[in-house]
């Protein structure tokens, strides 16, 4: 992972806040549902910004469609955000599907599937020990 610099971190947080507002208020495309901007990473030279996006309750195809729409609208979004931020340099925006939430949901489902098996096995072990006494 790249070194973290205070200036790029401040810019990333400011872009995330303003971009979230611009997407909610100005993007009318139905393919862009309830988008969550989970993270923004800005390069040290402030030339590139990678915006990690997740869409609540959407399948992988819908998320990819949403990311594609956002990448196609990057110029519009960049202009709107630049007007609000008023910085000398506004990074190029690149939207990326954030798979962390999907992975967490899959792991949670696996744990939930295994946990009842372990509980029933533990109960049978306790019952067998109790019958031995």
Q: In words, what does this structure look like?
A:
59% of the residues lie in helices and 17% in strands. Helix 1 packs across helix 3 (74-85). It has helices spanning 6-26, 60-72, 74-85, 100-132; strands at 35-42, 48-55, 92-97. It has a 3-stranded mixed beta sheet, covered by helices on one side. The protein is elongated and about 65 Å long. By secondary structure, the chain is an alpha+beta fold. The protein is built from 4 helices and 3 strands; from the N terminus they run αββααβα.
Brief write-up:
With 133 residues, the chain is an alpha+beta fold.
How many E-type strands? 3
Determine the number of helices (DSSP H or I, runs of at least 4 residues).
4
Give helix % range: 55-70%
Class computed from helices, strands and strand pairing: alpha+beta
Order of the strands making up the biggest sheet? 1-2-3
Broad shape: elongated
Low-confidence stretches: none
Q: Mean pLDDT, as a whole number?
A: 83
**What is the radius of gyration computed over CA atoms, rounded to a whole number of angstroms?**
22 Å
Order of helices and strands: HEEHHEH
Please report which band the strand proportion falls in: under 5%, 5-15%, 15-25%, 25-35%, 35-45% or over 45%: 15-25%
N- to C-terminal separation?
57 Å
What kind of sheet is the major sheet?
3 strands, mixed
């Amino acid at each position: 992972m790249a070194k973290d610099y205070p200036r790029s971190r401040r810019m990333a947080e400011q872009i995330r806040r303003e971009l979230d507002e611009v997407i909610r208020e100005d993007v009318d495309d139905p393919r862009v549902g309830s988008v969550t901007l989970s993270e923004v990473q800005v390069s040290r030279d402030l030339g590139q910004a990678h915006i990690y996006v997740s869409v609540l309750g959407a399948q992988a195809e819908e998320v990819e469609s949403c990311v594609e729409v956002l990448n196609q609208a990057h110029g519009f979004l960049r202009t709107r955000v630049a007007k609000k931020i008023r910085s000398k340099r506004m990074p190029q925006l690149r939207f990326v599907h954030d798979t962390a939430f999907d992975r967490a949901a899959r792991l949670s489902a696996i744990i939930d599937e295994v946990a009842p098996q372990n509980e029933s096995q533990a109960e049978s072990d306790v019952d067998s020990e109790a019958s031995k006494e």
